[in-house]
Design goal:
With 650 residues, the protein is an alpha/beta fold. It is built from 20 helices and 27 strands. The mean pLDDT is 96. The structure holds alpha-methylisocitric acid and iron/sulfur cluster.
Length: 650
């Protein structure tokens, strides 16, 4: 029997512009929509400017300001001004600070079923809740897509996730994705798109689907997608965009590579314990952990549905004396609706602090917990140090569990809150796009505004024939995140447009001497390397986690495996990602070891042949391989994608 095509495959095939659509093969996909946010956007637009085009070539490109909204001095404000001027010049819509978190606003105002979207943020898959193929990528890949170039990816496998039945009281979409993380952990989705199906899907609203799709990023998946059905149509209608609805449904026997099944009625309230989103256990097993702080918001759980529920649960109650509750609605639309329905009154009366409609505490932009504090957050990442307080313990939970923690002052099964209020989205909402600035039809006369904190990118040297003098700068374990490599937070984020400065903070959380040691090695004429475990570079799409090591002289990274977006970013900036043939050889390398890779350029030619790394300090040899496509090989040899693109056009 002929299997029917999954929705993800169908959309990707419709957008195929290069390559053979076969599992594992590299293909080029036409991109309809792009999004950027301010913390990665400045780099993306500096790269777009370098392409010397007069306008973006996509159907729609939107630039958001939501990450660096703490304006402690001129730096973030300068970035915002730069982004606003670039948007006007090149035909990009500009979502001003205060309008909300990129993924929430994109879902409300722009996402469309059947479209392709790439965004310079790893949670771009949120729009998969609307039936779009939405992928997180590095800024340079987004810049290329804005220039009309395809997005290259290996054809992923599809993991069908069958949802049966309906969720019980006090259990919500966040618990579903935590249940998936409990089962497949932070790298179980690598190489897959997660596609949701089954009769349970129709019981979930679009924002709930978006919560699940958002945090699929934490499994390492390329993206997640839901069908587009009547529920999708209702949501688009509410947003005044019903004409943009198309139906997307799968045939009876979909061609999934793997299927997992979830009985929604059996899902229980869950939390991810410190310091990984994959460290999941039932709330009932960690009850009584004292909670000092609760934060509700982020692109995972800040929709109107979430906030109305939180308001209902808080109505007539008070936040515990020893706990602080901070709430950041995901968008200005959500905040205005909360005001209209009186929900904000319940929230403020309960004692919550209202934070800006922005990412805020999710990436350490304020609201850091106290020393050794415990914070329960409805966010998607609880990586070590990300909250801004190294000694803090962060738990990730649903809004229901977060409210229970705020009321009882300790982790508590939310079912102890009593009756579960039934919360529905209103029939009508006010649409006010006045903080989204449309570009003029001709932006050619617009001057780009560049503050002193915006530093241009340095040139990258092409790959030499031999890497004769390499020094191991650091050795790190499995699942090292981009937050370890380049931390976020209020102190460091303002330098996102200033590579020399931000490079000083590379690996700061792990070893504060990293950057100065790396510079010493670079200045001595040698090359630095990093030795990593499995899933090196998981988490964010931030290019700075590749750019900073590149700036500090790193030309090659040796790891057991790499996370998708970070691997692509390394290649884009001319850093060679090599994989151990025998993972146990990881033990044959230590910090400060001196290595040599002779003939590195030639060895890239034959994919099956291993690349020999000689450890001169220990007099032994280690076999590595690469998994670069022909195109990626040329990018590495050229010294990164900008050089490669320049070479193509000369
Ligand atoms: C994140 O959640 O880690 C971020 C901050 O949104 C990043 C982007 C960034 O580092 O600017 C992401 O997820 O890609
Ligand atoms: Fe913003 Fe946090 Fe979402 Fe990243 S995960 S986009 S920092 S809200």
């Amino acid at each position: 029997m002929q299997l029917s095509m999954s929705i993800a495959r169908k959309i990707l095939k419709e957008h195929l512009v290069e390559g053979q659509f076969e599992l594992g093969e590299e293909v080029g996909i036409k991109i309809d929509h792009t999004l950027t946010q301010d913390a990665t956007g400045t780099m993306a637009y500096l790269q777009f400017e370098a392409m010397k085009l007069s306008k973006v070539k996509t159907e729609l490109s939107v630039s958001f300001v939501d990450h660096n909204t703490l304006q402690a001095d001129f730096k973030n404000a300068d970035d915002h001004a730069y982004l606003a001027s670039v948007a006007a010049k090149y035909g990009i819509k500009f979502s001003r600070p205060g309008n909300g978190i990129c993924h929430q606003v994109f879902l409300e105002r722009f996402a469309r079923p059947g479209k392709t979207l790439i965004g310079s943020d790893s949670h771009t898959p949120t729009a998969g809740g609307m039936g779009a193929i939405a992928i997180g990528a590095g800024g340079l890949d987004v810049a290329v897509a804005m220039g009309g170039g395809p997005f290259f990816m290996k054809v992923p496998k599809i993991m069908g996730i069958k949802l049966n039945g309906t969720l019980g009281d006090f259990v919500s979409a966040k618990d579903v994705i935590l249940e998936i993380l409990r089962r497949i952990d932070v790298k179980g989705g690598l190489g897959y798109i997660l596609e949701y199906f089954g009769d349970g899907v129709k019981s979930l609203s679009v924002p709930e689907r978006a919560t699940i799709a958002n945090m699929g990023a934490e499994t390492g998946a390329t993206t997640s997608i839901f069908p587009s059905d009547d529920v999708t149509r209702e949501f688009l209608k509410l947003e005044g965009r019903e004409d943009q609805w198309i139906e997307l449904k799968m045939g009876p026997e979909p061609d999934f590579n793997k299927v997992i099944e979830i009985e929604l009625s059996e899902v229980v309230p869950l939390v991810a314990r410190p310091h990984s989103p994959g460290n999941v256990s039932p709330v009932s097993e960690v009850e009584n952990v004292v909670v000092n702080q609760v934060a509700i918001g982020s692109c995972t759980n800040s929709s109107l549905k979430d906030m109305l529920l939180v308001a209902e649960l808080l109505k007539g109650r008070k936040v515990h004396d020893n706990t602080t509750l901070g709430i950041s609605p995901g968008s200005r639309q959500v905040l205005l609706e909360l005001i209209k329905h009186g929900a904000l009154t319940s929230i403020i009366s309960a004692g919550a602090r209202i934070l800006e409609c922005a990412c805020g505490p999710c990436l350490g932009m304020g609201f850091a917990p106290k020393t050794n504090g415990t914070s329960v957050r409805t966010f998607n990442r609880n990586f070590f140090g990300r909250s801004g307080t190294k000694s803090a313990n962060i738990y990730l939970s649903s809004p229901e569990t977060a409210v229970a923690a705020a009321i009882f002052g300790k982790l508590t099964d939310p079912r102890k809150l009593g009756n579960y209020p039934s919360v529905k989205l209103p029939d009508i909402i006010n649409i006010d796009d006045s903080l989204i600035v449309d570009p003029p039809s001709d932006g050619s006369a617009i001057e780009i505004v560049r503050g002193p904190n915006i530093a241009l990118l340095p040139d990258v040297a092409s790959l030499p024939s031999d890497l004769a003098k390499i020094k191991v700068l650091i050795k790190v374990e499995d699942n090292i995140t981009t937050d370890h490599i380049i931390p976020a937070g209020a102190k460091i984020l303002p330098f996102r447009s200033n590579l020399p400065k931000i490079s000083e903070f590379a690996f700061e959380q792990v070893d504060p001497t990293f950057s100065s040691r790396a510079l010493e090695v670079k200045n001595s004429g040698a090359t630095g390397t990093i030795v990593g475990g499995e899933n090196y570079g998981q988490g964010s799409s931030r290019e700075h986690a590749a750019l900073a090591p590149m700036y500090l002289g790193v030309k090659v990274i040796l790891a057991k495996s790499f996370a998708r977006i970070h691997r692509d970013n390394l290649i884009n900036f001319g850093i060679l990602p090599l994989i151990f043939v025998n993972p146990s050889d990881f033990d044959k390398l230590e910090q400060d070891d001196k290595l040599e890779i002779l003939n590195v350029k030639n060895s890239l030619e034959d994919k099956k042949k291993s690349i020999v790394v000689s450890n001169k300090t220990r007099s032994l040899e280690i076999e590595m391989v690469h998994d670069l496509s022909e195109r990626e090989k040329e990018i590495i040899i050229a010294g990164g994608k900008l050089n490669y693109t320049r070479n193509l056009s000369t």
